[in-house]
Structures are given as C-alpha cells and as structure tokens.
Design goal:
Helices cover about 10% and strands about 40% of the residues. By secondary structure, it is mostly beta strands. The chain has helices at about 1-25, 40-50, 260-265, 345-350, and strands at about 30, 60-65, 70, 85-90, 100, 120-125, 130-135, 135, 145, 150-155, 160-165, 175-185, 190-195, 200-205, 210-215, 230-235, 240-250, 255-260, 270-275, 280-285, 290-295, 300-305, 315-320, 325-335, 340-345, 360-365. Strand 14 and strand 15 (about 210-215) form a beta hairpin. The protein has a four-stranded antiparallel beta sheet with strand order 1-26-25-24, with no helix packed on it. Strands 2-3-4-5 form a four-stranded antiparallel beta sheet, with no helix packed on it. The protein has a four-stranded antiparallel beta sheet with strand order 6-7-10-11, with no helix packed on it.
Length: about 375
Amino acid sequence: MIHKVALLFLTLAIYVEATCDKEIQRPLEWTGGSFEWPTPSTKALYQASGRFIGKNVIATRAQIYKDDVILAFPRYKPGTPVTLGRVSLKQRTCEAIISPYPCWSTQEEGNCGALQSIVDIFVDPNDILWVLDVGVVNTLSCPVRKCPPKVVAFNLKTNRQVKVLDLSGLVAQASRLQYLAVEYAPDGRPYVYISDAATRSLLVFDVAGNRGYRVVLPKAVVGTGRRDVLYIALVQKGCGNNFIIFSYLSSPRVFSIRTDYLRAGCASGKIQDVGLKPNRLVFLGTDLGSAIFFRYEGQPEIYRWDTNTPFLPVSFVLVYKSDNCFLSTQAIADVKRERMRVLESNFPDYVENTVGCGANQKISLMTGCL
C-alpha cells in the first residue's frame, strides 16, 4: 500500500511539473490594447473620447520580473491609454490581459508627474525598474511634446516610484532618446546610459550624484540614415569589465567602450571597432552576461553572439525564428527560469496602418537556457 501511495505522489508530481512546463512554454498572445479596465464604463469613456484606440496600441520593449512581464507601450499614435503595463506569465486566458504599471494614475497623458511615452525599460540586479520616458506622444502621426524627457525608477518589490532623473538639461531640441541600460559601479553607485541618436551621443547619469553629462561619439560611428537608430547593449565580457556595445542601424560597423571610461566622461581614444556587419542588424537584448541577441533588418531569425568571441558570422548562433508576419523587438532574460523569451509583433503592419483590429503581439520562449 505504501508503495502504491508513493507511486501516486510521484505520478502527480510528474504531471504537475509537466503542466507547469507547458504553461511556461505557451506563448502569451494578445491583439491591440488588451487592458484590464477598472470598469466597463471607464473603457467606454476612453473610447468615446479617443483616448483608447485599440489598433494604435503596441508593445515594443519588455523585461521579466519573477512571474510578470513588464511592457513598454510607446505612444506612437493617439489612443494609447497605457504606456507602461504588466502581464502575468501564469495567465491561463486565451488572450493576455494587461494591467497598467504601477497603476492607472501614472499613465495620464499631459500630466508631467505621470508617464508620457515609454520607449525603453531595464530591470537592474536590485529589482529596480528604470523606464525611459521621452515626453513626446504621437511620434508616428503628429509629434507633440507633452513634458521634458526623464528616467523614472520603480522598486518592483513595493511597486513604488523611487527616483526621477530629469534629462532636460542633457538634450537638444533635435534629440532622439531611444535605449537605456543601467549598471552599478564598483562603489555601488548606479549609472544610467542612454542613446541619443540625433546628437551622436551617449548620455551618462550618475544617479547618486544627481548629475549627468553627454559623451559625444566620433563621426566614424555614424551611418548613412537620416533618422537613424542608435542601439546600445550592456554586456560583461569577463574580468569584471562591463562594456557598452553600440551601433547605428545604418552603420556598417559595431563599436564598444568600457563603462568605466563612460563613467569618467572620457571617450576620446577609448572606443573600439568591434567589426564589420554582414548586413544591417537590430539589437534585441542580452542574456545579462556576455551574449547579445540580434536579427538582421526585416528578417525573422534571431542570432546569439557571445561578445567574448570575434564579431564574425562564424560566431553567430541561430537560436530562434519568428512565425510569418512577426518580427521580434526584444529578447528578454527570464532569470527565474533560466530561459530567454522573445517579444514579437507585426510591427511593420502597425506602422503602415494595416493591422485591422490591432497589432498581433506575443511573448514566446526561445530554445535553450541562459
């Protein structure tokens, strides 16, 4: 009898483990702005006033914290009621339901004490969520500056705002802030790095000292695009040295600089030419270590490059391929499960206004482990 009971418990354990694994692997999918509204009447009010237009909502960046995915919804077009949201990886519904993060009051467009348009997010090792708010809405239709640009930090354990970094003194009228990364210096001080594509610069902000400065990059790093994208990725290549790997989309080459040089405000002569690109490539994210994930422009395949190896095609490992009509916008480390995930959508259709009811978006699981 004891053996039968033990066998039953073992069978149940295997079933539960298999079920959980299936839950983890099942993609989270949704269309347009699938939000959790306070009441049906609130949703109706937002729709009637034009503050919610489902087909205009799209998530482009994501980070994972425990069982939640934090999502950035840039206000590219009118009718995006939430610019920072959260969805649970454990949701069992057919369509993922997204709640505003940390709450509805922080999403108010035109209120400079709230979030205006989040274009990138980063979770640091101390469970602090850093969000880059450019302050400009409707960027793909008729851009309007609602508020100065800023970085806002939230403690993910308490869901409370803990810091606001005013970037207005570091930007020019033409600035286009696009990506951010955060690290802690050996003395424990946090530093925020932000790419400014229009001014060929990296913004460096010493959070503890409440001061920031601009590091102007040499002309050699610039590509040929008029409204280009300046990608950055924070990697650790060994020996305790962190690097920012960066490249313009249209640039034929990839570059790097040690972050201790950036923290010292000294880039002159410190930038390294990493190598020649086989084609235009889109940075998607890192494994929080030495690996960068990327895809070629317009292509569904995602590659992993260990930055400890030469930047050559022989070093690029194919790790994922998006389904038809989908392209990835971020590769995300799922630390709890030691896996990588992918945020993907039909973003080109969204830009061309051919999404019908809304953009198709999903978070899928990569093969392999971190």
